[in-house]
Amino acid sequence: MLGPRAASLTRTSLSRTASVSLRRGVASRAAVPLSCSQKLVFPKQIQGVSVVPERYLQISSVCKSEVVVVEGPAFAESISEGDIRWNKQVGDFVKEDEVVAEIETDKTSVECPAPQSGTIVELLVADGSKVTAKQKLYKLQPGEGGGSAAPAAPKAEAKNASSEAPKPAAPKQEAPKAAAPSAPPAQNKGSIPSSLPKTAPPPSAPMSSTPVSSIPVQRVRVPDGVQPDHAITGSRDEVRVKMNRMRQRIAQRLKDAQNTYAMLTTFNEVDMSNIIEMRTRYQKDFQKKHNVKLGLMSPFLRAAAYALQEMPVVNAVIDQDEIVYRHFVDISVAVATPKGLLVPVLRNVESMDYAQVELELAALGEKAKNNKLAVEDMEGGTFTISNGGVFGSVFGTPIINPPQSAILGMHGVFDKPVAINGKVEIRPIMKIALTYDHRLIDGREGVTFLRKIKNAVEDPRTILMNL
């Protein structure tokens, strides 16, 4: 047992030792990592005596400015990896929640926002590399003042670029030198007339019969992250660009659909007179009440949901040796984006009205426009509608979106002469197409289903009266 004075001296000695050790640990943090909240342990520590004074447990300025290693986001269960595209570079200052990079998966793009304000110190993965969920991506130096160093990097690069700019001009000055030596040998040989026909044929000679396909083509591979120029200028070269993950996934799914399904397409025409008249009459009131325009998609979505309820087999799908019938209608709507075709899903369309459909379409469209669609927004559809009419399509056969069993293709509305009660009238007509899996859906069911959609669009009262 220690006496009171001995215990007091021991506490003082231990406190001084802890203070010195902690300060040295902070000064040499690169060699010995030390957490600011971690207490030091001494071999002869006395039970009940605090080794580290309370004031040293506070986070110092050194710890507050510690470099942070930022990890990537978590992916959905169906996604294992993606390709990263950096929006910022080393030395750039970023604010909290500012997008530093995007990870492009085979279904969507996932943004990587900065967890706090600071300066990017190091990128741990190269642009275009494959990354997995929660992988360490970059190092960030926290602090609001770190942004002052960011503008210096572009200036330094600009100076280097300006100093290196004259270098590409060197071959232009050397070109005349390479051509100059060729003249003296021709003059020294003395037999100029005999050499002219071999090197310079008459201008009136016929053009070469060499096929264009045999002319050498200069192939250029564009580095990742560089936007290529796709303009056709007539030059004999070509550019190769790496296919992004979304395009690869689209290609794979479409080929799988072609190899798996027994696809058959049936067609019909829809008289759009009543829908156009309804939109014209109620557009202002509809927009005033719901703050969204009444488009052409909502009548077709509601008509499709009505027809799917009437014919559940079109809403079903084959799973190995079983048929899976879904008791809900989730309709995928094809949306074209610069990165590829996306198919966000409207859930439980069977319980929606026109206003709810338009509001949901507007919300999904805004997400797609701002690249905010999540994987969950595009999973689980039971039927798909593709509207090629917005691009002026007249006719076409859509391809099934796996693992669904059918897809409806909408096309443009054009005035055409039609026979009405024995008279020829000009009506706005839209051609529609239904591609379905003939393994599950018979021809009679496919044709009947498409006619139900046609009748429900031409006269929406059939839905209200459940006819």
UniProtKB/TrEMBL annotation:
List the EC numbers from the record.
Answer: 2.3.1.61
- Please name the PROSITE patterns in this protein's record: BIOTINYL_LIPOYL (PS50968)
What enzyme class is recorded for this protein?
transferase
Required co-factors: (R)-lipoate
The annotated pathway is: Amino-acid degradation; L-lysine degradation via saccharopine pathway; glutaryl-CoA from L-lysine: step 6/6
Q: Which family does it belong to?
A: Belongs to the 2-oxoacid dehydrogenase family.
Report if keyword Mitochondrion is assigned.
yes
Region (Disordered): which ranges?
Answer: 140-214
Can you give the residue ranges of the Lipoyl-binding domain? 67-141
- What this protein is called in its record is Dihydrolipoyllysine-residue succinyltransferase component of 2-oxoglutarate dehydrogenase complex, mitochondrial
Name the Pfam families on file. Answer: 2-oxoacid_dh (PF00198), Biotin_lipoyl (PF00364)
